DNA sequence: TTAAACTTTCAAAACTTTTTGAAAGTTTAA
DNA sequence: TTAAACTTTCAAAAAGTTTTGAAAGTTTAA
């Protein structure tokens, strides 16, 4: 396969993966494009390469900055803004985990905590089943949360070494 | 909070979480409803409680069975089909991880493997950047895959005990 | 100041996904 | 057989999401 085709394929795949993971397709594609660009790109260049509108490009770039995945850069003597992506895959994974934890896990845990407080008669099957599911899921969510927290604070090397060895 | 309100809230939250995680809202809501039902429910009951159409209910129930999250049950002497959810949270997490691994991770790894094979001149920054990102992401994806595989094969208890201790 | 170069906004349009509901299909009991 | 009870299908409609592009806003250099 030739480099240009490979690049296109990479952008396409990353976009698809993104849309399965709550990051929208264009956002993931712009990210992919910046990931494989040795130099920072302008809005104009991104619009052209991915054939997207100015408005879309601007919004997407802003979102990506919000996710901590890309940064603005200014070249001395130039008015234009350049964008570049952090190329460190471990950082990317960490950022995504961090954001999703904040955006999705935290609100759910808040609701579950509230729902765990509901009281009732344990001999009432309606209550008992509700209560068991809610408490179990709450425990699971808290466990995941704690795990993420620890992972985010941990150092990079254990990851590349393979966490999985620990479960053997 | 009163039990009925709590149930509604649980179904709503689970639905929201589902839609952020690639499982559609109705599917997650039906699952939530079955999770907190002490007894199996019929299509009719589910339609009524969640105010969804017959077609939608039928499709959703089929999908949930496909994900391994619920099962059909027959009551002796009755024509109707009843549905019930596995209430074991660890099983639920395992099933979801298993399915997503198969549906999403595997195809990506396949593409990345292909893209890793692309050759070029390492002094060409275009190639070098592309290659580094692709290989790094490939390593990450494989690592996640391996971790999932091990987790899925592992026993339940280490999870409830808290994996996170291992990262301390 | 001014105007050129650039960025941001947002209502409307395009596209995608989900849901509906009526019709077709299947199973069972009599 | 038949018909009632139930399940499945799928084209069209509704709902939800993303994208466009023109207009408004901002910054900078002169």
TrEMBL record, chains A, B:
The keyword Transcription applies. Keywords: DNA-binding, Transcription, Transcription regulation. Residues 22-79 form the HTH marR-type domain. InterPro entries: ArsR-like_HTH, HTH-GbsR_regulator, HTH_MarR-typ, MJ1563, WH-like_DNA-bd_sf, WH_DNA-bd_sf. This is HTH-type transcriptional regulator. It comes from the Bacteria. It holds the Pfam family MarR_2. PANTHER family: HTH-TYPE TRANSCRIPTIONAL REGULATOR MJ1563-RELATED. The lineage of its organism: Bacteria, Pseudomonadati, Bacteroidota, Cytophagia, Cytophagales. Gene3D superfamilies: Winged helix-like DNA-binding domain superfamily/Winged helix DNA-binding domain. Belongs to the GbsR family.
